[in-house]
Design goal:
single chain, binds pyridoxal-5'-phosphate
Length: 224
């Protein structure tokens, strides 16, 4: 039971560092169903996964009231596997993916919540829309074409760097874009989520206005 004490302490520590109103998504990629269950029994319900095959394997083994967040790069061909149960898709990067998410949500007779991923980091490897692309997509949002989708906000990942000033600037830039786009959103009252911050840059993200953080390592320890 040694490890469950550790998890409990880590969970308490992370939660204590979050202001009221900040949702904690426990990032459970590369964690077993047992590890996820250990956090579930402590009362946690929001879990984030990056890989469709891995999520599909674990989801049926775990309680149905878990809110699964898809935080990875989503291929259009994989949408059908997660739409029936996914709670929020964080990584939407353009109209082609929105079209598939809409089509599959219609088929599943449900409304799906999505975030637009914005590319704020310096690394080319990170996915997402530029500021300009995001503005154009939100301004031109076609409520009929995507009637089964609900645009809930933005998501971003800062550069992986020791340079705190750079990370701070990137998060502040994303927060500015979020506030700029909100009045233009198809439903501003639903556009309420700013998903930014991970284990290493949690505090900077919260200081910049994040209201949803995605935390793996600080909860579960280093990934193997
Ligand atoms: C892995 C991952 C996280 C969590 O990273 P940690 O450093 O383990 O907290 C958060 N967001 C995304 C998009 C990720 O891929």
């Amino acid at each position: 039971m040694e490890s469950s004490v550790t998890l409990k302490e880590r969970y308490a520590r992370v939660k204590a560092s979050l202001p009221v109103g900040v949702t904690l998504v426990a990032v459970s990629k590369k964690r077993t169903a047992e590890e996820i269950m250990a956090l579930y029994v402590l009362g946690h319900r929001d879990f984030g996964e990056n890989y469709v095959q891995e999520l599909r394997a674990k989801q049926p083994l775990l309680p149905a009231d878990i809110r699964w967040h898809f935080i990875g790069h989503l291929q259009r061909s994989n949408v059908k596997h997660i739409v029936p149960f996914i709670h929020l898709v964080h990584g939407v990067d353009g109209a082609p993916l929105l079209d598939v998410l809409h089509k599959r949500s219609v088929a599943a007779d449900q409304v799906l919540d999505v975030l637009l991923q914005i590319h704020i980091a310096q690394e080319e490897t990170k996915h997402g829309l530029s500021t300009e692309e995001a503005r154009a997509l939100v301004a031109g949002w076609d409520a009929n074409r995507w009637s089964a989708l609900r645009l809930r906000g933005l998501m971003g990942m800062a550069t992986l760097t020791e340079d705190q000033a750079l990370v701070k600037r990137e998060f502040e830039g994303l927060a500015r874009l979020y506030h700029e786009l909100r009045p233009m959103a198809p439903d501003p009252d639903s556009f309420t989520t700013l998903s930014m911050g991970m284990s290493a840059d949690l505090d900077l993200a919260i200081a910049a206005g994040s209201n949803m953080v995605r935390v793996g390592t600080a909860l579960f320890g280093e990934r193997g």
